[in-house]
Each structure stands twice: as C-alpha cells, then as structure tokens.
Design a protein that fits this description.
The chain is mostly beta strands. The chain has one domain: OB fold (Dihydrolipoamide Acetyltransferase, E2P). Helix content is 0%, strand content 41%. The protein is built from no helices and eight strands. A hairpin with a 5-residue loop joins β5 and β6. The termini are far apart.
Length: 90
C-alpha cells in the first residue's frame, strides 16, 4: 500500500490585498474639487479649510487649489492635547 498519511489542513495561508492607503496628493501640488488627498483608517489627519472627510475618513478637496499640510494641537475627549496634521486646500 503506497500512499501518504494524512497531512492535516494548512492554516494561515490566506492573504488579503493591500488597501492602498496613504497620502495621494502632497503639499504644494494642485488639486481639483472632489479629488482624494488622503486615504486613511481613523482620523490620523484632519480636514481643514477647503477639505472634507467622508464616512471612511478619506479626505477630499472641496474646491480647486493647492494642498497644504500643517500640524496643530487638538484636544481629546479626556482633555489631553495631541498634535495632529491638518490638510487644507487654499
């Protein structure tokens, strides 16, 4: 009887594709209304003047202009202040 004994099942072999997150348009570059500036999970970067966040935290341009990034202090619910990057379209 020439056969191979049972080898069991393979685990941890599934892999999901990347989500293509990150900054799509950098500071100083031109952008048009509705284009995506940042794709992110959670509110790591915040929308400022001329930008808006959608339901999945993607930041879009509200108007044509030039993208800018600046850091500012934001107060959390606990009262602690933390630095966050603000995305603007001027």
């Amino acid at each position: 009887m020439s056969h191979v004994k049972a080898g069991g099942t393979a685990k941890n072999v599934k892999d999901s594709p990347g989500q293509r997150l990150g900054v799509k348009v950098f500071g100083g570059q031109k952008i048009r209304t509705g284009q995506i500036i940042v794709r992110q999970v959670g509110m790591t970067k915040r929308p400022g003047k001329g930008a808006k966040a959608s339901r999945n935290f993607t930041i879009h341009a509200e108007r044509d202009g030039i993208v800018g990034f600046k850091t500012r202090k934001v107060r959390r619910f606990t009262g602690k202040t933390v630095r966050r990057t603000e995305v603007t379209v001027e």
